[in-house]
Amino acid sequence: MRYSAYSIFKEALSGNRMWKPAWREPQPKPHYDVIIVGGGGHGLATAYYLAKEFGITNVAVLEKGYLGSGNVGRNTTIIRSNYLLEGNNPFYEFSLKLWEGLERDFNYNAMVSQRGMLNLFHSDGQRDAYARKGNGMRIHGVDAELLDREQVRRKAPYLNFDHARFPIMGALYQKRAGTVRHDAVAWGYGRGADTRGVDLIQHCEVTGIRRENGLVVGVETTRGFIGCNKLALAAAGNTTTVGRMADLELPIETHVLQAFVSEGLKPVVDHVITYGAGHFYISQSDKGGLVFGAEIDFYSSYAQRGNLQTVEHTMEEGVSLIPGLSRAKVLRSWGGVMDMSMDGSPIIDRTPIDNLYLNCGWCYGGFKATPASGFCFAHLIAKNETHHVSRFMRLDRFERGYTIDEAGRGPQPNLH
Ligand SMILES: Cc1cc2nc3c(=O)[nH]c(=O)nc-3n(C[C@H](O)[C@H](O)[C@H](O)COP(=O)(O)OP(=O)(O)OC[C@H]3O[C@@H](n4cnc5c(N)ncnc54)[C@H](O)[C@@H]3O)c2cc1C
After folding, report:
1. Residue 412 has what pLDDT?
2. 205 lines ligand 1 (CB under 6 A)
């Protein structure tokens, strides 16, 4: 069924009783060409592009919970391509371009909203760093503007410009950045993959990886053994545990990141704003809730919830940037498990096991990468060749000394 204004009209005439489920609930087949572990944004996008771009449809996505129950449905929905380094910039710009045509492409309303993003700076040194990043972006053809304090004030007058310690001096502005409704991304990619014949198998946890003569032959799951020719891991915060099933020790640590939403307010925050004096970021959802977050909790954990110390720290940062925030009530908070890589950049690569493919290390920036990640991972799986925009995202870069250290903070997950 194609969604359109006509279909809404037609279904309304029959009392909206004829809508079909967005995807099937198939039983697992004994064998697939490709199995993808993880029904998050990246796994579903990979399945979608495998089917749509490369004609590979004998594919299963195995998800231990329900589709979108992981980070894809837990993030703060920010998309952008404001990266400095060659290893990142073309990749994230490719992703932003895919976001721009996504809803038409997969025929689903994902509420892509390019409302612009302001990265605030608070010192001369930080301004120079942002000017450099902006120049790097423009060299790659990505939009970037350096705004002074008054230009920022016109866009966001509610910010604390005269903060005694961190006065706002200006911002790096990316107009095409914004937000996307996160769970609709999972649903849209899932529906698009299902329509093309991919089996989306929910409540099916992978508990083991079976190998013969060095190659993967299938996976043990809570619903029995399922064979495959190729196995692709897109398990985000669970990458290390799934990798260990194939004896892979990966340069990944799992950490918790929390997010918060306030009660619904009238429109006030028109953009995505990031605080340069901390790691606080905020936007306003279409329902009116202020959606915000800050740093990861400072310890490794696989729990999808965080600690109160980080709650307090996030609120302090928020109120320091927007004093009026102290008047809003927080409605909900939640956590997700992040696959933190040692240089803060992701991995899309083959592994030492020939038919085992790896997609991980997204830290807390993987949502915006979902389209490009899915496209490049599908390209790798289908052709056994790396897509050129993800060519730096290699697993062996840590051994070779070619890290992609965007934040310049070294191999310290808690600093990324
Ligand atoms: C609070 C928070 C805020 C964030 N904010 C942003 C943001 O604003 N912008 C941005 O770009 N990124 C953001 N991120 C990061 C982003 O959400 C992640 O990097 C991205 O979603 C990870 O990819 P995914 O969608 O495939 O992960 P997930 O949705 O986590 O998918 C992985 C799936 O694998 C499944 N799985 C794991 N193990 C197994 C197994 N053994 N068998 C079967 N299934 C398994 C899990 O259940 C899960 O559904 C944020 C993350 C969090 C938690």
Report:
1. 84
2. yes
**Chain centroid, CA 267 distance in Å:** 25
Nearest to 263 by CA among 289, 297, 282, 227: 289
Write the pLDDT tens digit of every residue in 9-54: 999 999 999 999 999 999 999 999 999 999 999 999 999 999 999 9
- 3-state DSSP call for residue 119? strand
d(CA 391, CA 393): 6
Residues with Cβ < 8 Å from 391, sequence gap 6 or more?
none
Question: Are 141 and 81 within 8 A, CB to CB?
Answer: no
* Domains defined along the chain, listed by start: 27-77+183-251+343-400 (3.50.50.60), 111-179+253-341 (3.30.9.10)
Task: Decide whether any atom of ligand 1 lies within 6 Å of the 272 Cβ.
Answer: no
Closest among 358, 346, 395, 57 to 231, alpha carbons compared: 358
For the cut 90, the answer to whether the pLDDT of residue 416 exceeds it is no
Tell me, in angstroms, the distance from the centre of ligand 1 to residue 299's CA. Answer: 18
> Which two tokens mark 226?
């399922």
Ligand 1 centroid distance, CA of 351 (Å): 21
Cα(166) to ligand 1 centroid in Å equals 33
b/e string for 391-414 if b means 16 or more Cβ within 10 A?
A: bbbbbebbeeeebbebeeeeeebe
Sign of CA dihedral 243, 375, 237, 207: negative
Residue 401 to residue 254: CA distance in whole angstroms: 22
Full DSSP string of 62-90: E-SSSTT-SGGGTS--EE-----STTTHH
Q: Residue 97: how many CB atoms within 10 A of its CB?
A: 14
Q: Out of 71, 74, 189, give the residue to mutate to test ligand 1, the one with the largest number of ligand atoms within 8 Å of its CB.
A: 71
231 lines ligand 1 (CB under 6 A): no
Please give the pLDDT value at position 267: 97
- Which atom belonging to ligand 1 lies closest to the Cα atom of 339? 19
